[in-house]
């Protein structure tokens, strides 16, 4: 193994003509080749997707036999769930991350120093100058950001992936007001917010300069249907709509999401379950001798992140992979790195045993 086998999260020094493609979790094909383990034999904890999918066992065949024109029933279900009518359905939140930079005037974009790297990748590709702020202290960085020349965009990942930190909504609203006076936009990536409803800006009228990105697949456990939503003022939705081609949200995604978004009882019960499972996973990890020297261990309702030295993180990542357990390695720099653990059914003693055995440094 060499450094290229690991997920390098270090920030780039400046704009580059050809940005490295970010690495993602869930690539069992890649790691099966690297470690000689069949894809079906992995315990995959690398994605942050709920292991408890919405229970829909079949999709009628006729759903796949017609062109996927947009179904108004999905719009109604999504509007009720997200608390706003100003929504655009898209083929995954990743699509918006790729296309939103083209909708903004050029200048500087402020992003967390730790966070989902596709954001920085695409703002850089669009020619924006990148300014970093501490992922855990956006409020403390506000004064410095206010002095940033030609700041056009502030990106907030809330909750942050992988740092598992949440910025208070009051802070975001105050920042949005300040940005509006400068003609700048606040982009809130709420991909992990479904499991923590109190961390979302949705449910009230959004300011004209706020764009919220939501993912369907993570909380509902259906990442393969590729569905997300953008909530924003009509100007932003129209700008993104112009970049959408016909039939971009497939029929299966629309069928599944319409039913899942309407199921309030399941949603409430699942939020409670994920919170309990996440807390139990954090307790399990904190009890492992291999992680006793970790600098911090934080959680959201969909993953637990451990901050440790890069050297230790690489050793643990490699040891787990050799034993068929795939976790997420995210380098902050040469000294520090996050290990992110997705959830699994902790009531399954076999799965819990696999993780603890993989973490055992003997």
The CATH topology name of the largest domain reads Aspartate Aminotransferase, domain 2
N-to-C terminal Cα separation, in Å? 20 Å
H-E order: HEHEHEHEHEHEEHEHHHEEHEEEH
Q: Which stretches are low in confidence, meaning pLDDT under 50 for 5 or more residues running?
A: 1-17
Strand arrangement within the widest β-sheet reads: 2-8-7-6-5-3-4
Name the CATH superfamily classification of the largest domain.
Answer: Type I PLP-dependent aspartate aminotransferase-like (Major domain)
- What fraction of residues sit in β-strands? 15-25%
Mean pLDDT: 93
CATH class of the largest domain: Alpha Beta
The helix tally amounts to: 12
The shape, in one word, is globular
Query: What's the main sheet like?
Result: 7 strands, mixed
Reported CATH architecture of the largest domain = 3-Layer(aba) Sandwich
Provide the helix percentage: 25-40%
Content-based structural category: alpha/beta
C-alpha Rg (nearest Å):
20 Å
- Say how many strands there are: 13
Integer tally of domains: 2
Describe it for me?
Decarboxylates L-threonine-O-3-phosphate to yield (R)-1-amino-2-propanol O-2-phosphate, the precursor for the linkage between the nucleotide loop and the corrin ring in cobalamin. Helices cover 35% and strands 17% of the residues. The protein has helices spanning 28-35, 72-82, 93-99, 117-125, 138-146, 169-180, 217-220, 234-241, 251-262, 264-286, 310-322, 349-359; strands at residues 43-44, 87-90, 108-112, 129-133, 151-157, 185-189, 210-215, 228-231, 296-299, 303-309, 325-326, 328-331, 336-342. The strands form three sheets. A seven-stranded mixed beta sheet has the order 2-8-7-6-5-3-4, sandwiched between helices. A four-stranded antiparallel beta sheet has the order 9-10-13-12. The longest helix is centred in the C-terminal third of the chain and has 23 residues, at 264-286.
